[in-house]
Amino acid sequence: MSPRNWKAKLANSAARQGRNPADLVQEVLASYFEEEGRFLEAVKRGEDALRRGEYLTQEQIGQRLRRFLQS
Known about the structure:
Blueprint lengths: L2 H15 L3 H31 L6 H13 L1
C-alpha cells in the first residue's frame, strides 16, 4: 500500500470514529510497539526454553491436539 493510500485510510478511519488523525496515529503506533514488545519477549522465552531442552516433539504436539479435539 502506498503512502497516498495510507493517508486516505487514516482520514477515513479517523472521520468514522470522529477522531483527530494525529491522535489515531499515536494510538495505533503505541499499540503496535506494545504488542511488538510482548511478541519479542514471548520469542525470547521460547528460545530460552529450547536452549534448556524444554520443548515438545511433533508427535507430542499431535497427541495433545488429538486429546484436546476429542474432549
